[in-house]
Amino acid sequence: MDIDRVAELQRWQDTGAVWEVLSMRDGAVSVALLRCDGGEEVDRFTSDDPRLLEFIGDRRSSEE
Q1: Has residue 39 been placed in a domain?
Q2: Which residues 6+ apart lie within 8 Å of 19 measured at CB?
Q3: What is the tens place of the pLDDT at every residue in 2-54?
Q4: Fewer Cβ neighbours under 10 Å: the N or C end of the chain?
């Protein structure tokens, strides 16, 4: 099952929660999903999906 990570990040930030880039190298990005009430990490994933890389661009988090 393929997960649409762009849609996931969009939903995450639309609810007021934050995502943060942990690392970006070799054409892949690792992202942490953080709670909106203090930044506790809820989940993380790594992906090389070109759509996701384009969506994130040079941002380090959803707060940029």
Answers
A1: yes
A2: 9, 12, 13, 31, 32, 33, 34, 61, 62
A3: 889 999 999 999 999 999 999 999 999 999 999 988 789 999 999 999 999 99
A4: N
pTM: 0.89
33 within a domain of the structure (yes/no):
yes
Dump pLDDT digits (tens) for 42-55: 999 999 999 999 99
Residue type (1 letter), 50: P
Cα angle, residue 31 at apex, residues 34 and 37 outer, rounded to 5°: 5
- Write phi, then psi, for 19 (nearest 5 degrees): -115, 150
Half-sphere exposure of 40 (CA within 13 A, CB side): 3
Q: Rounded distance, CA 33 to CA 44, Å?
A: 6
Alpha helices in the chain (DSSP H): 5-14, 50-56
